[in-house]
Amino acid sequence: MDKKRMNGLHHVTAISGPPQANADFFTKVMQQRLVKKTVNFDDPGTYHLYYGNETADPGTILTFFPFVNAGPGRAGPGMASAYAYAVGQRGFDTWMERLALEAIDFDGPAERFGSRVIKVSDPDGAKVELVEVEGDDRPTLDGFHSVTLQLDDMEPTQRLLTDIMGYDEVAHETKNGEERLRLQLPGDVRGGVVDLMRSDVPSIGRQGAGSIHHVAFRALDDEDQLDWRERLVSAGMDVTPVIDRQYFNAIYFREPGGVLFEIATDPPGFTRDEDLAHLGQSLQLPAQYESARDRIERTLPPLVA
């Protein structure tokens, strides 16, 4: 089988508490655009909020299931423990200045693999990382740099990502009780970095507000996704059939370390039911829930974004 490489991250999905605080933080503090307001397809009494850049490009999309009464979550082995936005060098300084002027606390800067990193806490206490990179100095965050997977044993996940998904091992460091292995796709790929991390501090992960639910990688189209599915099944992964998620088609599987992975198609995209200028302004429902729109709108908590 020929060598094939992933196309970077498509989106990251996390769990939060009440939606208004979540929307305020990501649109006002992190300056992301709410590009889609819909419902959790498995629980239409809960929003599914999507944030991204102005054009809602794959690799910029952070989504949340905001459960009003969610208990606190905690990252642990077998979970994605962090996501990071890429920020150019000048933009990185600008972000620190802006956060300081607006009295928004952040941790750092610390150094990771020779680059500066700061961490901002979202309303549920989850850390949003900003990683300094060369190049793009736009003042708004325009996509992901990486995700971090917390694991007890890195090797099986490393083999999947390098042997099957086309990542290269590029760096390794141990600092402050954390061992971190960096895997990266060649070239300038948005969201092209996956860090595998093992901590000396014992912890047990728990899904809840402030935790990451799954990590999605890009497939360019349906054909590309089916090819990835065949490759993953051949490698022993238990992969779901293709599922229609309205704005992309998705397949899911647990990587050997326990993290839920998704591969999502670029098309049809977020302009499927709204034009670009009006993304995120109205509640969008999949066809199966349109007949229940009145009830769903009465059930969902108010949200101004």
From TrEMBL:
Boundaries of every VOC domain copy: 8-133, 143-266
Gene3D superfamilies per UniProt: 2,3-Dihydroxybiphenyl 1,2-Dioxygenase, domain 1
First and last residue of the signal peptide: none
Family annotation (Pfam families): Glyoxalase (PF00903)
Keywords (A to Z) from UniProt: Dioxygenase, Oxidoreductase
GO molecular function, one term: dioxygenase activity
Keyword Lipoprotein included in the entry's annotation: no
Protein name (record): Ring-cleaving dioxygenase
